[in-house]
Design brief:
Layout lengths: L5 E7 L3 H11 L6 E4 L16 H4 L9 E2 L12 E2 L21 H9 L7 H11 E3 L13 E3 L7 H12 L15 E4 L4 E2 L2 E2 L2 H6 L8 E4 L2 E11 L2 E11 L3 E13 L2 H11 L2 E2 L1 H6 L6 E2 L11 E4 L1 E3 L6 H4 L3 H14 L11 E5 L10 E6 L15 E8 L7 E3 L10 E3 L6 H18 L10 E4 L7 H11 E3 L29 E3 L14 H18 L1
Parallel strand pairs: 1-2, 1-13, 2-10, 5-6, 13-25, 14-15
Antiparallel strand pairs: 3-4, 7-18, 8-9, 11-12, 12-13, 16-20, 16-24, 17-20, 17-23, 18-19, 19-20, 21-22
């Protein structure tokens, strides 16, 4: 049906970045835009319900269900690595936390030579996209597509934890999106009146009526085709396989934009002959364009999930521990769009320095009013909280590498967590700081009892081992097609593939270093800037 068709722009991936790009590029009715998504529509019952992440992560209907390579930094464990496989991508299955990161993150990008990426450059872009619950001000925007709201459920144990953090030198602040996150606050979320507000809801749905925008789902891009013009490779078309229409080729008159994420974008480039030459040849694929940085520089936030039993209060463990509790929560949500069903995995956060020599906050807690052995398993039969601490600026680096030219074979994802001494030091400091907070007088009425890693774990060596055993991802992979101007960079600071024409990469993979916080809001900003670059360059 689509064989031989041409479009001005072809966007690969309808996740957060792809939805923004589809909206912005199709706003000009002269542009014929195609958005391609390998996953399905977002009409699954659990997607709009905030607590539905419990049923979308690890579900092959909505998640690629990747597995990482066995990691020495995780005591040899391989872990599940969720990536959205649905319209809206990860924004349809994630924690909904709206977190820009800190000013120093973006100023660091600028010091690396990336023009226009400093905090003062990107703040107006964040504001442009935003529809803030409290209206526009110096830091926030109103009237944009991306709704940002406050929590809709309260837990006394979280209020007490926030008091305890303040007693340990972490001040209470109003919010996290003003450039300096040092402090403790409740997370703001991408919800609209208690319903998940994904990138698909925010950016793609309002554009679907446009006759110049076409969306194809359940369509896998097998490779990008290049031709040579003026001695340079130029991306000219893509080969796809559709569940309905079989295999065919589509041409792009102005360009192809990869928005498949930090795993999908480098994997597709490698299968298309773009990457480190020796690795490409090992796939049996001709080298089209040598770029040794493709798939390298993988970064993620590792969270260390400590668990504390508590008394004299109710947590999610007991509220959802029986049929009647679950029924009451469902009724509250159906009637009022409030209560535990509006919860992201974490509601409360805190930012601090792991030691006084850090220039700014470099650790973050996500505090959950619940506990379980691991994601997807039942809640514990006792009331408990989970203060997870993570290193916001890890020095460990991993990679994403295609195993073969077969697009159906998942790539090898090697995180190399805790592979530097600095990361181990921060992990140990984070565990010790968590214990200080849990021992503060504000939490005394709740008699906290350390369940994991356990009070018998005391020495630095024991705490390092505990970090390896308890550590897991917060699902923030970035950096595998990083921007820059050195030999290892994959795209320039206008997000165009270095040394080639007709191809941009616009997603989390272009971050030179990970932002200090949840990564979905920065991806919206990157896509907004990227759309401007594409239109200007074309």
């Amino acid at each position: 049906m689509l064989a031989g068709m041409e479009y001005d722009y072809i966007i690969v991936g309808a996740g957060t970045a792809g939805c923004v790009l589809a909206n912005r590029l199709s706003a000009d009715k002269e542009n014929q835009v195609l958005l391609i998504e390998a996953g399905s529509d977002d009409n699954y019952f659990w997607i709009p319900i905030p607590v539905g992440y419990l049923y979308t992560i690890g579900n092959p209907r909505t998640d690629w269900c990747f597995k990482t390579e066995p990691d020495p930094g995780l005591a040899g464990r391989s872990i599940g690595y969720a990536r959205g496989k649905v319209l809206g991508g990860c924004s349809s299955i994630n924690a909904m936390i709206y977190m820009r990161g800190q000013a120093s993150d973006y100023d660091h990008w600028a010091t690396l030579g990336n023009r226009g990426w400093g905090w003062n450059d990107v703040l107006p872009i964040f504001r442009q996209s935003e529809d803030y619950q409290h209206g526009a001000d110096e830091w926030h925007g109103a009237g944009g597509e991306l709704r940002v709201e406050e929590r809709r459920v309260n837990w006394p144990i979280l209020d007490a934890w926030r008091d305890a953090a303040e007693q340990c030198g972490i001040p209470k602040i109003a919010e996290y999106n003003r450039g300096d996150n040092f402090g403790t606050a409740y997370f703001q979320m991408n919800q609209r009146r208690g319903v998940r507000w994904s990138a698909k809801s925010a950016f793609l749905d309002p554009a679907l009526h446009r006759p110049n925008l076409r969306v194809e789902i359940e369509t896998l891009v097998e490779r990008i085709d290049f031709e040579t013009r003026d001695g340079k490779p130029r991306a000219s078309s893509i080969d796809v396989r559709s569940r309905q229409s079989g295999q065919y080729r589509l041409k792009a008159r102005k360009g192809i934009i990869l928005a498949a994420g930090a795993i999908g974008s480098p994997h597709l480039l490698q299968r298309s002959g773009v990457g480190e030459p020796q690795s490409i040849r090992s796939l049996g694929v001709p080298v089209v364009h040598a770029l040794k940085g493709v798939g390298e520089n993988l970064q993620d936030h590792l969270q260390i999930r400590t668990i504390y039993k508590v008394k004299n209060t109710r947590t999610m463990n007991s509220r959802a521990g029986n049929f009647f509790g679950k029924a009451l929560m469902a009724l509250e949500y159906a009637a009022l769009r409030t209560g535990p069903l509006t919860m992201p995995p974490s509601q409360l956060g805190a930012f601090a320095r792991s030691d006084e020599n850090r220039p700014s906050a470099n650790i973050e807690w996500h505090v959950q009013p619940l506990s379980l052995e691991r994601f997807g398993e039942p809640l514990h039969p006792f009331d408990a909280i989970t203060p997870s601490v993570c290193n916001l600026r890890p020095k460990s680096r991993g990679h994403v590498r295609a195993r073969s030219a077969d697009p159906d074979e998942a790539p090898a994802i090697q995180l190399n967590y805790l592979s530097t001494q600095d990361d181990l030091d921060v992990a140990v400091a984070g565990l010790r700081f968590t214990r200080r907070i849990m021992a503060a007088s504000a939490l005394t009425p709740f008699s906290p009892e350390e369940f994991k890693p356990g009070p018998q774990i005391q020495t630095g060596e024991q705490l390092e081992a505990a970090a390896r055993e308890l550590g897991t991802t917060i699902f923030h992979p970035v950096g595998t097609c990083r921007m820059g101007h050195d030999d290892d960079a994959v795209v320039n600071d206008r997000l165009k593939l270095r040394g080639a024409d007709g191809l941009w990469v616009i997603d989390a993979s272009v971050m030179p270093s990970i932002t200090s916080g949840n990564t979905n809001a920065p991806v919206v900003m990157i896509a907004e800037k990227g759309a401007r670059f594409v239109l200007e360059d074309s």
